[in-house]
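Need residues for this backbone.
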């Protein structure tokens, strides 16, 4: 009888160790779920910032300095987004294969590890340009001179200040003025700022 009670207590002790490990696993999985949710939120937040910048480029008459600063910001945000996106790919692989991990045989856990390794190998392959031509890529490398924007596309003499002021006061869009004078919209944007007119045509949230 004493031996039975001893074995019983040993069995219950071993079972309690296993259950306590499962309790720890529950905490680890909850922490992992929180991490995955945060990655999704960070990715969404970054996508919204990028969308803001794209719309500023589309609707605002940006001068060269602003375009350069926007380009730097897009580069910074895209580097963050690449990390979030790579993590999201691993999360998708995890969700697909986690049945092999949770409460499963050891051989299935080995398969899970291999699945994660295989997915990880494909995440950092070099991006292949799909649409931009070699000529377009070379254009991106050309240095921008201080007055290059004003010199580009100018075929006619710019009108006097009074003419510009009248156009601005009548509410003509920079793009329309630029098209009429056959100049770059950035030229009109610079003159607009120089003559004391607002150039921003996008709206910030809450304003």
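Answer:
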């Amino acid at each position: 009888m004493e031996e039975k009670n001893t074995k019983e207590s040993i069995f219950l002790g071993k079972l309690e160790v296993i259950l306590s490990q499962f309790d720890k696993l529950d905490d680890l999985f909850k922490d992992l779920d929180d991490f995955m949710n945060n990655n999704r939120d960070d990715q969404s937040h970054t996508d919204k910032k990028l969308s803001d910048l794209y719309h500023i480029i589309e609707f605002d008459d940006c001068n060269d300095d602003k375009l350069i600063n926007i380009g730097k910001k897009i580069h910074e945000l895209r580097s963050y987004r690449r990390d979030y996106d790579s993590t999201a790919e691993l999360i998708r692989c995890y969700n697909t294969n986690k049945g092999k991990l949770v409460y499963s045989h050891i051989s299935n856990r080995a398969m899970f590890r291999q699945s994660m390794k295989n997915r990880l190998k494909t995440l950092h392959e070099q991006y292949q340009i799909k649409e931009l031509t070699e000529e377009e890529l070379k254009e991106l490398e050309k240095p921008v001179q201080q007055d290059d924007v004003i010199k580009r596309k100018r075929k006619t003499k710019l009108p006097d200040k009074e003419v510009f002021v009248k156009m601005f006061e009548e509410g003509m869009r920079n793009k329309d003025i630029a098209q009429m004078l056959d100049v770059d919209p950035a030229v009109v944007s610079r003159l607009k700022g120089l003559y004391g007119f607002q150039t921003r045509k996008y709206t910030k949230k809450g304003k």
